[in-house]
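Exercise 7b. Backbone tokens:
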């Protein structure tokens, strides 16, 4: 993975310390993850970074606008969830733990979905499949 500075520069985002710190946290290891602003805030403060929660929210919003993150609507909570995997894909949502797991887009072909009655074409789909431990 490129370093945080290069990532922000490539996304045409102004380089600031909060953006660098959040980018390092989210992208340094190249792993895809699903996080809330509160989780990012907690991890940063646990690492000794002094940052306002509002700054975390604003920065995550800028990352979404720049295409670095994708918001995921979670029917489980009011908290916005941010996904570092910005490619088209779906999710399993474990209702017990709240954990999101990626499902590759090709696992659910668009042609299997009901088609709109108005004749328009489906161009994308973001499906959240809820699961519960039994």
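Sequence design result:
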């Amino acid at each position: 993975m490129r370093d945080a500075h290069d990532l922000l520069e490539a996304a045409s985002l102004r380089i600031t310390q909060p953006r660098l710190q959040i980018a390092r946290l989210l992208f340094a290891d190249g792993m895809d993850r699903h996080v809330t602003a509160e989780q990012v805030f907690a991890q940063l403060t646990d690492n000794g970074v002094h940052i306002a929660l509002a700054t975390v929210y604003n920065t995550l919003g800028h990352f979404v606008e720049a295409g670095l993150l994708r918001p995921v609507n979670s029917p489980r909570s009011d908290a916005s969830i941010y996904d570092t995997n910005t490619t088209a894909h779906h999710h399993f949502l474990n209702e017990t733990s709240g954990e999101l797991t990626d499902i590759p887009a090709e696992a659910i072909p668009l042609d299997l979905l009901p088609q709109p009655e108005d004749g328009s074409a489906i161009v994308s789909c973001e499906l959240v499949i809820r699961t519960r431990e039994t």
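Instructor comment: The chain has a mean pLDDT of 90. Helices lie at 4-10, 17-27, 37-46, 53-65.
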